[in-house]
Known about the structure:
By secondary structure, this protein is mostly helical. It has helices at 3-31, 45-68, 71-92, 102-111. Helix content is 73%, strand content 0%. The longest helix is centred in the N-terminal third of the chain and has 29 residues, at 3-31.
Amino acid sequence: MRRDERRLNAYAEHNHGVKQLAGRYQSIAAGRGLATGPAPLELTAEVHAELSAAEARRSSLSETCALLGDTDTNTASKSLDHCLWRLEHLARGVPTETEQSWENAYLEFRYGSCSS
């Protein structure tokens, strides 16, 4: 497989993992009354284990992308990861340095305008 194909596959897999996690966080946020739309989800031990496994996979895919990507792509990938972590913290009720609504954090995630 050529390097370009490996890079494309790595980016696609990473983005799929990020999108999957963001969807689960949105459902948890809905369960806490922070978001509307998706089916509400309670953060049970089973869901927590599922999220941990998905995050471990996303992290591994992120490292593959870093090895194959250029500086601009890696910077964008890290920004996306930070947006995702912000969604996770809001969904789980983890205090952060900056107060932000779910809606604003999700819009930043969707449009890639999140800062670290």
